[in-house]
């Protein structure tokens, strides 16, 4: 009898069937789950990941305090219209293949406490990385009390998604022109929700063109990509 261990999902626990497990982890951002042949192994998997989650939460709490203290000491790059500039980027190696890895980069200023370099949560694709980078940038901006944010990205796909395509996809019930489901619907809606309280201006920059902010965001994204660990999906 198989044992499906869900360490991170809608309701963590051990499930007897893949369908039960799937209902807990499907489209759940950052889900952690695995199939085992014994109940003991499944329990150990959940305990191990619960311990890691506790450690991460503790570290995040300490980081949040450090960030809060550091924000007042570091300037933002603000333009004449009062927009704070942030550069975002996503990186993915072996995009579309089984061994793909992806990461995100968010850059406000050199050595800024709100800069982020981390692996993608969920499917490791280039588009997923670009979307999650903006989602995280919006969260960081709100944490600092920023109201107006100029997002600089080299992803035309991302800008078109938010400024043109999303409204059309919504009107068609989240179907593309070819009548196929929009692949990144969940992540796009999450990004939209995080951006909603902000006044946002989008700016497309050319990648690898010597633009310092873009180069730094790319570096952070590539470092995040190296931290990515594939999830072992069972079914």
From TrEMBL:
Its EC number is 3.1.26.4. It holds the Pfam family RNase_H. Keywords: Endonuclease, Hydrolase, Magnesium, Metal-binding, Nuclease. This is ribonuclease H. It comes from Harpegnathos saltator. The keyword Lyase does not apply. GO terms for biological process: DNA replication, removal of RNA primer. PANTHER family: RIBONUCLEASE H1. InterPro entries: Ribosomal_bL9/RNase_H1_N, RNase_H, RNase_H1_euk, RNase_H1_N, RNase_H1_N_sf, RNaseH-like_sf, RNaseH_domain, RNaseH_sf. The keyword Magnesium applies. One of its GO terms (molecular function) is RNA-DNA hybrid ribonuclease activity. It comes from the Eukaryota. CDD domains: RNase_HI_eukaryote_like (cd09280). Signal peptide: none annotated. It catalyses: Endonucleolytic cleavage to 5'-phosphomonoester. Its cofactor is Mg(2+).
């Amino acid at each position: 009898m198989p044992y499906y261990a869900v360490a991170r999902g809608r309701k963590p626990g051990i499930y007897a069937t893949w369908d039960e497990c799937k209902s807990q982890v499907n489209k759940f951002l950052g889900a952690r789950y695995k199939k085992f042949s014994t109940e003991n192994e499944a329990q150990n998997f959940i305990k191990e990941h619960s311990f890691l989650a506790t450690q991460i939460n503790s570290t995040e709490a300490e980081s949040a305090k450090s960030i809060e203290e550091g924000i007042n000491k570091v300037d933002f790059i603000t333009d004449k219209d009062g927009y704070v500039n942030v550069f975002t980027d996503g990186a993915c190696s072996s995009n579309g293949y089984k061994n793909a890895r992806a990461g995100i980069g968010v850059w406000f200023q050199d050595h800024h406490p709100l800069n982020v370099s981390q692996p993608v949560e969920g499917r490791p694709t280039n588009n997923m990385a670009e979307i999650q980078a903006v989602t995280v940038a919006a969260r960081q901006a709100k944490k600092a009390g920023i109201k107006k944010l100029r997002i600089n990205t080299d992803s035309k796909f991302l800008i078109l998604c938010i400024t043109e395509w999303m409204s059309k996809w919504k009107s068609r019930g989240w179907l593309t022109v070819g009548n196929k489901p929009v692949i990144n619907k969940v992540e796009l809606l999450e990004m939209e929700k995080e951006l909603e309280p902000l006044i946002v201006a989008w700016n497309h920059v050319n990648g690898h063109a010597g633009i310092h902010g873009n180069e730094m965001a790319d570096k952070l994204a590539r470092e995040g990509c190296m931290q990515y660990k594939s999830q072992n999906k069972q079914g």
